Each structure stands twice: as C-alpha cells, then as structure tokens.
Amino acid sequence: MSLPSSPIVIGLTTVAALFVATSLTMGFFSKNQMPVAGRNIIVTGASQGMGKAVAILLASLGANVAIVARDPKKLAAAQAEIQAVMDANASKYPDQKLAVISADLSKAENAQRAVAEAEEQIGDTEILWCCAGGANPGFFRDYQPADLEWAMNTNYWSAVYIAHNVIQRMTSRPPPTQKYPTDGNHQRRIIFTSSLAAFCPLVGYSSYSGPKAALRALTDTLRQECLLYDIDVHCCCPGSILSPGLETENLTKPDVLKKIEEEEDKPQAPEDVAKYCLEEIQRGQTLPVTSLIARAARSTLVGPTPRVGFVFETLLTWVCTIVFIFVRRKHDGFVLQEKKAKGLPWENKQV
Ligand SMILES: NC(=O)C1=CN([C@@H]2O[C@H](COP(=O)(O)OP(=O)(O)OC[C@H]3O[C@@H](n4cnc5c(N)ncnc54)[C@H](OP(=O)(O)O)[C@@H]3O)[C@@H](O)[C@H]2O)C=CC1
Ligand SMILES: CCCCCCCCCCCCCCCC(=O)[C@@H](N)CO
C-alpha cells in the first residue's frame, strides 16, 4: 500500500484530522450532559431577571420547577408567566409541576424550609440552580458595615445554605435510575451564579466581587467533593444582564464604573443569558459564560477548573493573559481620570 502523495490529499487529511481533534476536545460531538425534561429543578431568584428566564426556559423544556424568592407579589406574576408556558406545553409534557415558595434564603432555616416545601410539591430535587443575588455598587470607603453584610448575605449565603441542604438530601438517597430510560442520564447538579465581575477587578464592586469570587472558589472545591456523590457543580459567570436588579443598582453605581461597563460590556437579555448558560452546562462547562469578552476573561483565571476544549482554551489563556495587562491598565486609566477630576478625598469636601 502506498501512502497518499498528492499535496491536496495530504492537506485535506490534515484539515479533517484537525477538525475531528478540535471537535472532540471542544465537545462538539459530546452529548447533552444536562437533559432537563422531567427533572425536578429548584430555581432561586426566579421572580425576575435571569432567574425567571431560567425557570421559563426549563419549564419550556419539560422540567418540573420550584421557584424561590422573597416578595410574594413578584413571585405570583412570575408564576403566571411560567404556568402559561407549561399550559402551552401540556400535550407534550402532561404532568409538569410548578411550585412557588417565598423565602429569604440568606437564613439557613428558611433555605431548609424552602427545599422541604419544594420537594413536597414537585418531588426530590435533581437540579438546584441558584440565581438569587444582587449588587449594591459604591466606593468601599462609603459603605456601612451593613452594606457589606447585605452583599455577602444576598450573594453568598443565599446560595450556600440552600446548596448545603440540597446536597445533604441528595446524598441521603440514590438518583432515580428508573426515571429516564431514554437518555439514561441521572446525574444530579448544583448550579451557582457568579459574575464576570469575579474575573475582572472593577472599581465600585468591592462589596460584590468578594462573595461572587467566593462562589466560584466554592464551586471548584465542591465539584471535587461531589465526585464522591455523582453530583456535578457549575458556576455561571454572565456579564451585565438587562434585569430589574441592574436598573436598581445603576441608581447608585459610581460614574467611573458605569463608564468602564459601557466601554467593555454589552448588557444581554435575561432570556439570552439563560439560554447560553444552559447550553454551556449541557456541553459540560464548569464555569459557563455568555459572551466572548467573558470567555476571554475566564481563560485568564480558569486555573485548575476543568476546561472544555483543553487545547483551544489553553491557547486562549496564553493570548488573553497578555491582553488583560493592557485592558486592566485601561481600566486603571478611567480611575486615574476620576482622581484628577475629583482630587484626593482629604484635599476636598469628600470626607
Ligand atoms: N444584572 C446583572 O448585570 C448581573 C447579574 N448577575 C447575577 O445574576 C443573578 C441574577 O441577576 P438579575 O437577573 O440582575 O437579578 P435581579 O436582581 O433582577 O433579581 C434577583 C432575584 O433574586 C431574588 N432574591 C434576592 N435576594 C434574595 C434572598 N435573600 N432570598 C431569596 N431570593 C432573593 C429576588 O427576589 P426578591 O427580592 O423578591 O427576594 C429576585 O427574584 C444574580 O445572582 C446577580 O448577582 C451576574 C452578572 C451580571
Ligand atoms: C482578556 C480581556 C478580558 C477583558 C475583560 C473586561 C471585562 C470588563 C467588563 C466587566 C463588566 C462586568 C459585568 C458584571 C456586572 C455585574 O455582575 C453586576 N451588574 C451585577 O448585578
């Protein structure tokens, strides 16, 4: 047998081999790792913004959904929207369940009650998707201790307490192996929601980036422990989302932070954020992102977190690590301009 000698044949074979190799490492051929039809899913922060969009998306794909937030009025409005989606689906998914639970998740006992109520109404939790959170941007020196505590409660404890309770429950019973004869996937999951702000230092997010980075660190550690229990752990890291929360935070956002965000980040619709995050999770991504810029930022801080598409992501890390030096300098430049305009605090009336 003689080896192909024509340059065209060699060229085409090389391209095909590279395509197959990249596709395998980038997960194009991998199967959907998170089917949702028929799964019992708790979504927190689901009365508005990203959480509501996640709940609607999961409902449209046939999941049983329990939504959790504090304000019963906002919950009722979200309930009507989600129920309408389920009703429209009734012929395809006849037994879909929807539970609505009002709870302040920043307290452990409320988180435990919320899970108990959710399981009573929709069944044993298979997926927990934590979206509850929020930002109170400002300057560190201007915050009261209560503002810093609010950010930690709203973003960190609101996710940690419920995840802790759900993992205790999940590990006290086996996954429902009989339930999915067609796709055979019984993998259970915890999904947190962090932010692009956990990857990029941004003046004005000092109360927020800590709890969000903590969720990412928790994800890495918990992912490893959860190998013991066959539970997967993810942490979504979206950029700005066009949500009621963003409108509120923009009321107190320092101008310098607004300028940096306007320059770098195009806000996305909650529906798009939900869709991209789900797609990334279905490809097996531990830190789902929703934009190219967030993907670039993630690549510089991905560290030991598993990468989907190791070769490409590692090349991206090398390139973006250099790029980030210049981007960070540009952001520092915005802050230095602000200093020039305002002067130092002890030299003027900002005390
Ligand atoms: N908007 C943005 O630009 C970005 C947001 N994120 C993150 O994405 C997630 C969704 O953001 P977004 O769509 O703006 O959300 P919103 O601020 O619009 O909504 C927050 C949701 O969480 C609920 N919630 C807040 N605190 C608690 C609590 N203590 N207990 C229970 N529920 C609570 C709210 O309901 P209620 O107040 O009634 O309890 C609401 O349903 C958040 O974690 C946010 O930090 C990440 C990147 C960018
Ligand atoms: C290699 C180059 C990488 C460049 C990265 C630059 C990214 C800067 C823009 C960051 C915008 C932050 C959005 C998060 C907003 C948020 O979480 C709040 N709105 C929460 O409510």
From TrEMBL:
<dbReference type="GO" id="GO:0006666">
    <property type="term" value="P:3-keto-sphinganine metabolic process"/>
</dbReference>
<keyword id="KW-0560">Oxidoreductase</keyword>
<feature type="transmembrane region" description="Helical">
    <location>
        <begin position="308"/>
        <end position="327"/>
    </location>
</feature>
<dbReference type="GO" id="GO:0047560">
    <property type="term" value="F:3-dehydrosphinganine reductase activity"/>
</dbReference>
<protein>
    <recommendedName>
        <fullName>3-dehydrosphinganine reductase</fullName>
        <ecNumber>1.1.1.102</ecNumber>
    </recommendedName>
</protein>
<dbReference type="InterPro" id="IPR002347">
    <property type="entry name" value="SDR_fam"/>
</dbReference>
<keyword id="KW-0812">Transmembrane</keyword>
<comment type="pathway">
    <text>Lipid metabolism; sphingolipid metabolism.</text>
</comment>
<dbReference type="GO" id="GO:0005789">
    <property type="term" value="C:endoplasmic reticulum membrane"/>
</dbReference>
<feature type="coiled-coil region">
    <location>
        <begin position="101"/>
        <end position="128"/>
    </location>
</feature>
<dbReference type="InterPro" id="IPR036291">
    <property type="entry name" value="NAD(P)-bd_dom_sf"/>
</dbReference>
<keyword id="KW-0746">Sphingolipid metabolism</keyword>
<keyword id="KW-0472">Membrane</keyword>
<comment type="pathway">
    <text>Sphingolipid metabolism.</text>
</comment>
<keyword id="KW-0443">Lipid metabolism</keyword>
<feature type="transmembrane region" description="Helical">
    <location>
        <begin position="6"/>
        <end position="29"/>
    </location>
</feature>
<dbReference type="Pfam" id="PF00106">
    <property type="entry name" value="adh_short"/>
</dbReference>
<keyword id="KW-1133">Transmembrane helix</keyword>
<feature type="transmembrane region" description="Helical">
    <location>
        <begin position="50"/>
        <end position="69"/>
    </location>
</feature>
<keyword id="KW-0256">Endoplasmic reticulum</keyword>
<keyword id="KW-0521">NADP</keyword>
<dbReference type="GO" id="GO:0030148">
    <property type="term" value="P:sphingolipid biosynthetic process"/>
</dbReference>
<keyword id="KW-0175">Coiled coil</keyword>
<comment type="function">
    <text>Catalyzes the reduction of 3'-oxosphinganine (3-ketodihydrosphingosine/KDS) to sphinganine (dihydrosphingosine/DHS), the second step of de novo sphingolipid biosynthesis.</text>
</comment>
<dbReference type="InterPro" id="IPR045022">
    <property type="entry name" value="KDSR-like"/>
</dbReference>
